[in-house]
Amino acid sequence: MTDPGAPPGGPAPPPPPPPLPPRARTTGGPVPRSADEALEIGRNHFPPVGAPGGPSGLFVHEFAEGYLVHAGWPPPEDPGACPAQPGGSHVVIAKQTGELTFLPHFPPPEAVALYRRLRARRPG
Length: 124
Hints:
Blueprint: E1 25-27, H1 35-43, E2 57-63, E3 66-72, E4 89-94, E5 100-104, H2 108-121
Antiparallel strand pairs: 1-5, 2-3, 3-4, 4-5
């Protein structure tokens, strides 16, 4: 006996799984010798600090494999409103090769953890 409230042809299929996290993009570049050099390299990948709609500052988080360059943004005028430009990214500059990796805008510890997971999955 069938359920009179069930859709024709059987139960509805389950919802699709959530999308996979975005893949990091990588590109080569100069090898930084310090956090200050990493910051200068990173500046090329963000709007100018203080520009309208631009970051209020750029920051460097150094870790064993590289430098995470990320932007600080001014607080929104209306904290309840949707962001005018959602999203954003971080730039990781590898200490050994200068390779750039663009990651989603996560807090620094989570961005570094994602970078390490992505590097571990790479062949060679």
